[in-house]
Amino acid sequence: MNGKGIYMDNHATTPLDPRVLEAMLPYLGDVFGNAASRSHPFGWEAEKAVDAGREQIAWLINAKAKDIVFTSGATESDNLAIKGVVEFYKDKGNHVITAVTEHKAVLDTCKALERKGLATVTYLPVDRYGMTDPEAVRKAITPKTVLVSIMSANNEIGTVNPIAEIGKVTREKGVLFHTDAAQSAGKLPLDVEAMNVDLVSLSAHKMYGPKGVGALYVRSKGPRVRLTPIIDGGGHERGFRSGTLNVPGIVGFGKAAELSRDGMADEAQRVLALRERLRERLFSQLDDIFVNGHPVHRLPGNLNVSFAYVEGESLLMGLNGSTSPIAVGTSQLPIAVSSGSACTSATLEPSYVLKALGVGDELAHTSIRFGLGRFNTEEEVDYVVARVVHEVRRLRDLSPLYEMAKEGIDLKSVEWQRE
Length: 419
Ligand SMILES: *Cc1c(COP(=O)(O)O)cnc(C)c1O
What we know:
Elements: E1 6-7, H1 18-28, H2 41-60, E2 68-71, H3 74-88, E3 95-99, H4 104-115, E4 120-124, H5 134-140, E5 145-149, H6 163-173, E6 176-180, E7 199-203, E8 214-218, H7 247-285, E9 289-292, E10 302-307, H8 312-320, E11 335-336, H9 352-357, H10 361-364, E12 367-371, H11 378-397, H12 400-406
Parallel strand pairs: 1-11, 3-4, 3-5, 5-6, 6-7
Antiparallel strand pairs: 2-8, 7-8, 9-10, 10-12
């Protein structure tokens, strides 16, 4: 626990691992060269650091180092993958297949291409757990299909897609396959060879690295993927992404990748145990709560729960310290979680991801996303359980609907009177 509160929003971003910070520090100080300066040791030193980072990141996904293209983050990587493929292969076709639960970085990129008349896009539905069916991908492929883009793991509900099975289909059909792995990289194994993936979006700040740096893996062989760049300039990164490289960011990203891969199995087990402790304790103390997302195939650190009869926003405010807390003690700490998706929580629309699962608007409005990570502890989980249980009971005590439901009145049969 730290003074600012308890951080359980690790899908929005993760804290910088102190070991990552330590690796970065020299590159924010004395080692300032431009990795593209080939004529002196200042440049060589920076280039060496970038090469090492490239190796570490490639190793995380079993790729070749030269196939890693550095970007500013997964949003840019998604844009480059989708716009780059659509533009380059326009003589072959203009059809893209994706899914309704993708991150906005993918969905809005697809919509922008449709608006400009540059692509036609199929948005596949998902099952009630949020999974994409590889057979649905197969059926959607046409002779005009140039790209399939399906995320590795969902940022709201944590559902993990069958990437290897989808890769099998796309390889068989000779269609390029992109996956947004911002949430799963460093947490679950990802092997671009075994899974037949051609393009992968990564983000450092989702795996305990710095913000503002990411990568796109672009397969150079078997098949060789071609892309039209979206940023032109000095021809850096094989011409795919011009611009002076963020050397400290890349050093940190590399270190973060190495730490994640070295500790992956242990960390997944430890974080999963925390997640299950959270889930079991909430379920043993509260009725009418439901898990959203897949019961098994989900990110170890993700728990998305609907608390029926409780407005998610109200619960959030009871937890994050933005309302003066009801006195249950003197030492209340703010708790950081999300309701719906962080990216859509500015609006009061229920999450489009939950809607796609078939969760009704009412229950969707009661959902909270807990994102556990490397630095969470059992003590924090227990504290969060106590606070959530307290808040949910308090809010339900104020809810006439909850009272009626408890009295056995079927709320669907109630004829509401208009004032
Ligand atoms: C966070 C996230 C992104 C955006 O990554 P940035 O590096 O912040 O641009 C894209 N896709 C998914 C699934 C994410 O979780």
